Amino acid sequence: MVPRCYIPAPSRQRVTSVLLILFGLLLVMPAASTLGSSATFCCLAPSCGAILADHGWLTRHHSTCASYRQFQQEQLAMHQQRSMSGTIQVPTVRERLSAKRKAPPGLSERKNRQRLHSPLTDLNLQPHLPGPSIQTPQPSNHDPIPPPPPEPSHAVQMPDDTTDSGRPKRATRLPARFQDFVPDVAPIEEVSVSTLPRVTLIVRNRFKTLMTSVFGLWREYLYRPSYDPDSLIEDADLAGNFAPNPLVGIPSESTVPKAQRVGTNATATLLMDWKNNGNVTKSDGEINSLVRDVILDPAFNADELVGFDASRANKQVDEDGKTSFPFMKDFKTTTVDIQIPTGVKRAPPVTLAVPGLYFRNLIDVIKAAFTDPLSQHFHLSPFKLFRKLHGHDTEAIRVYSELYNTDAFIAEHDHIQRHGLLPPNNPECKREKIIAALMFWSDSTHLTNFGTAKLWPIYMLFGNLSKYIGGKPSIGAEHHIAYIPSLPDSIQDRIKSIFTKWNTQKASVLAHCRRELIHAVWRHLLDDEFLYHYRYGIVVTCADGVERRVYPRIFTYSADYPEKVLLATIRENGECPCPRCLTPKSELHLMGQIQDLVNRGSNLIRQYLSSKIAKARRFIYVFGLGVRSSKVEKELKATSSVPTVNAFIDRLGHDFPLHRMLVVDFMHEFELGVWKSLFTHLIRLLYAMPDGPSLVAELDSRYRQVPRFGIDTIRRFATNASEMKKLSARDFEDLLQCAIPVFEGLFSLPTTSEHDLRILKLLYRLAEWHGYAKLRMHTDHTLNHLDMLTSQLGTLMRDFQQTTCTAFRTRELPREARHRHDQALASGSKTSSSTPKSKAFNLNTYKWHSLGDYVQSIRLFGPTDIYSTQIGESLHRLLKRMYMLTNKNGHERQLAQRYMRVARARAAARAHRARQPQHFHLVRSGLSDPLGMVSLRVHHHTSWARRSPIDIPRFVGTQDPAMKDFYPKLQDHILGRLQHREFDGDDHHDFTDADRNTVYVLNNALYATRTLRINYTTYDVRRDYNTVNPLTTPFVMMRAPDGTTHPYWYCKIIGIFHARAYRSLSTGTTPPVSMEIMWVRWMGVVPECPGDLEAAQLPQVGFVPEDDPYAFGFLDPAHIIRASHLIPRFAGGRTNDLLSTRKPTAARSFDETDDWKSYYVDIFADRDMLMRYVGGGVGHLDCGTSSFDSVPPHAEPGPTLPTVTLLQPPAGNATNAEGSDLDLEDINETDVAVDDGDDEVTEIDMENESDEPEFYYDEDYGVGSEEEEEIENGSDCDSQLDNNDLDIHAYSY
Question: What are the sequence ranges of the domains in the chain?
Answer without folding.
Answer: 38-90, 332-388+404-663+868-901, 666-866, 932-1282
